[in-house]
Amino acid sequence: MPHVPVHIRAIFFDAVGTLLFPEPSAPAVYAAVALRYGLRLAPGDVQNRFITAYRVEEAADVATQLATSEARERERWHRIVTQTLTGVSDPEACYRDLFDHFAKPAAWRVAPDAAEVLAALQSRGLVLGMGSNYDARLWPVLAGFPELAALTDRVVISAAVGVRKPGTGFFQTVTRIANCEPNEVLFVGDDLDNDYVGATTAGMHAILLDPRGDHTHIPHRIMKLSELLS
Ligand SMILES: [Mg+2]
């Protein structure tokens, strides 16, 4: 079976980890900010602290049925930064520096095959869009990447929807923006739960972007975006 079944009319893509990647890496950026505020941390230590803090926030989201907002996202990142960088001289300044950093296109790189893949899919008449658990900072980031212009008419951001992925309410908004039935929409993303399970639970077709081959038991899986064209 081709990766994009013939009945599919719209394809929506996750943002971070699928089309956009922090460059330098998030642990390197956190470590650099920590150092500016008097705390020397190895990137590996940053990563461990970050993952622990991130998971606490994810558990908090489950307790509120994945409700979100711009305020909730700022709260999320404030807690993650202050927990990850415990020991710095000015936690509030670190939070502001990091929040602002990731709103800039210069903090990101785009997937090398994104422009070619999106152009090819668009030429097949497919409706294209983006569905992200990021927040309003996605807009200034996208403005810096003409490679992703094919998606910018249909960008679904959880902080605006009010529900995070993998919540069904998020994917119902994607379906409405796509102006399709759920089973006519393909969702492509790198997160097994948030993207693949969330989309299929909402009745969509899903493909997991799995560049390291971590999830070989998943039937619909690609290792790079260009496989969508085969
Ligand atoms: Mg992702």
Describe the 3D structure.
- This protein is 43% helix and 13% strand.
- It contains nine helices and eight strands.
- Strand 6, helix 9 and strand 7 (205-209) form a beta-alpha-beta unit.
- It folds into two domains: 10-19 and 111-229, Rossmann fold, CATH 3.40.50.1000; 26-106, Haloacid dehalogenase-like hydrolase (DNA polymerase, domain 1, Orthogonal Bundle).
- It is of the alpha/beta class and 230 residues long.
- Helix 2 packs antiparallel against helix 3 (70-84) and helix 3 (70-84) packs across helix 4.
- It has helices at residues 26-36, 43-63, 70-84, 91-101, 114-123, 138-143, 158-161, 168-178, 192-201, and strands at 10-13, 20-22, 108-110, 127-132, 155-157, 185-189, 205-209, 221-222.
- It starts with 9 loop residues before the first strand and ends in an 8-residue tail after the last strand.
- It has a six-stranded parallel β-sheet with strand order 5-4-1-6-7-8. It has a two-stranded antiparallel sheet with strand order 2-3.
- The longest helix has 21 residues, at 43-63.
- The structure holds magnesium ion (MG).
- Magnesium ion (MG) binds at residues 14, 16-18, 189-191.
- Pfam families: Hydrolase.
